[in-house]
Amino acid sequence: MSPKEEVQQILEQLPDDASLEDIQYQIHLKESSHGPAEKKEGRTAYEIYKGLDLGPGGYAIAPSTETRRGVREALRRKFGR
Questions:
Q1: How far apart (Å, rounded) are the C-alpha atoms in residues 56 and 1?
Q2: Alpha-carbon distance 79 to 81, whole Å?
Q3: Is residue 60 a contact partner of residue 70, using CB atoms and an 8 Å limit?
Q4: Which pLDDT belongs to residue 50?
Q5: CA angle (37 as vertex; 50, 19 as ends), nearest 5
Q6: Spatial distance between the Cα atoms of 80 and 74, rounded to a whole number of angstroms
Q7: Quick one: CA dihedral 41, 35, 54, 50, positive or negative?
Q8: 51 or 10: which carries more pLDDT confidence?
Q9: What confidence tens digit (pLDDT) does each residue in 26-81 have?
Q10: Residue 12 to residues 5, 8, 25: CA-CA distances in angstroms?
Q11: Which pLDDT does position 38 carry in this prediction?
Q12: Nearest to 10 by CA among 71, 48, 22, 54
């Protein structure tokens, strides 16, 4: 169905005294029901994130259980000590 036909279908369903705001709202609902572009491609947010190459542990330089060591290492890198 073409966009023009979709709008005509919306107009036929609305009462004759519908305001311009009512028409715009119905068009907005129709557009939002199609979903975001990522959903059209069949990819979820998780699949997009999974496809990013963050390396082991993402960008972390130490696991969360060794936070103190990671902070020391980050400071050493930053200040060259």
A1: 47
A2: 6
A3: yes
A4: 64
A5: 145
A6: 10
A7: negative
A8: 10
A9: 888 887 766 555 445 677 776 766 666 665 656 666 677 777 887 888 888 888 76
A10: 10, 6, 15
A11: 45
A12: 22
